[in-house]
Write a structure and sequence with these properties.
alpha+beta, three-stranded mixed sheet
């Protein structure tokens, strides 16, 4: 009986303890807290994602050779790319950068491309090398501008292997040389020094001729000008005389006399075109033919003593023309002395 009563008491104690634990669990997580917990998780999810996302603004510029091998003196292309934030100002190396052990030949670049908040810059450099290292490395740094600060971004080194065109010499063995006497075509070029020297020699020779025969050349040129002007005067003078003969107009006579005076002024370098008839006759030592011709023309033009006969006017025109011919011949004789 005593054992049975103790077992009943133990069962009651266990039942009471289990009921207390279940009541405590029900009180700790009530059902109406679940919606609030879900909203809290949704609100904190973006912060958790941003904390776990990688930092894409700190990417390293990538440089690589577009071919794994290169020969001595052969052009090889080196590609340099950089992905960065669109607001970042990046400066790629130019021809003044250090490309050792390579030499700069040229470059081509691609405009900046921006997609999904990321910008891509790409430049391809054309290089060549004359170094004999088996493996050659190149790393071109980029320049980043941030306000007044200038930062240098390191670039992943790129390697290229040198392909040798000749076998390595063995110690104590001289390689065999192969002669090549075949002529290669050479493009013809303009020989600037030769032609400049020739032009300078011609100029000197021409200057010497001009200095040595200056007086004779000047005399011949002046004689040529006098002959040309005299022929022009005779043609124009004959035209005015012919017009006067056809129209009997005093205007044509005045034009002929004015042409005659201007020609003599240019021939003898004087100003007889501004002198009166008496002054002109006195200037030429009272030449009889000149005095007669000028008096006949003055009587017709200023005295209005015009006759229908053509003898006097024709005589005046002939005397004036002959006087101009005599003066032209006299000037040529003086030049020949």
């Amino acid at each position: 009986m005593a054992k049975q009563m103790q077992g009943n008491r133990a069962d009651k104690a266990c039942h009471s303890e289990c009921s207390e634990e279940s009541d405590f669990a029900n009180r700790k997580t009530p059902a109406h807290w679940l919606p609030r917990l879900g909203l809290l998780l949704l609100w904190a999810l973006p912060f958790l994602a941003s904390a776990q996302a990688p930092n894409l603004t700190d990417t390293i510029p990538q440089g690589r050779f577009l071919r794994p091998t290169v020969r001595v003196g052969e052009i090889v292309e080196y590609e340099l790319t950089y992905r960065h934030a669109p607001s970042l100002e990046v400066i790629f190396p130019d021809s003044a950068a250090d490309y050792a052990p390579f030499e700069y030949v040229g470059r081509r670049y691609t405009p900046t491309r921006t997609r999904r908040g990321r910008s891509l810059d790409r430049t391809v450099y054309r290089l060549r090398t004359f170094a004999l290292d088996s493996v050659q490395t190149l790393a071109l740094p980029l320049t980043i501008l941030r306000g007044r600060d200038t930062l240098t971004a390191p670039v992943t080194p790129a390697r290229v292997r040198l392909v040798r065109t000749a076998p390595l010499p063995t110690p104590g063995h001289t390689p065999a040389l192969r002669p090549n006497t075949r002529l290669l075509p050479v493009e013809a070029r303009f020989n600037y020094p030769f032609w400049l020297a020739g032009g300078a020699a011609l100029l000197l020779a021409g200057g010497g001729v001009v200095l040595g025969f200056r007086r004779r050349l000047r005399r011949r040129y002046r004689r040529y000008r006098l002959r040309k002007n005299h022929a022009y005067f005779l043609a124009q003078y004959a035209r005015h005389v012919e017009r006067f003969t056809l129209s009997r107009s005093l205007t044509n006579m005045e034009r002929a006399i004015t042409l005659w005076k201007n020609y003599l002024s240019a021939l003898e370098d004087n100003a007889i075109n501004s002198l009166t008839t008496k002054e002109i006759v006195r200037h030429y030592q009272n030449d009889a033919d000149l005095s007669l011709a000028l008096h006949l023309t003055d009587r017709v033009i200023y005295g209005n003593q015009f006759t229908e006969e053509e003898t006097e006017t024709d005589l005046a025109f002939i005397l004036l023309r002959d006087f101009a011919d005599r003066q032209y011949s006299r000037v040529l004789e003086e030049m020949a002395k």
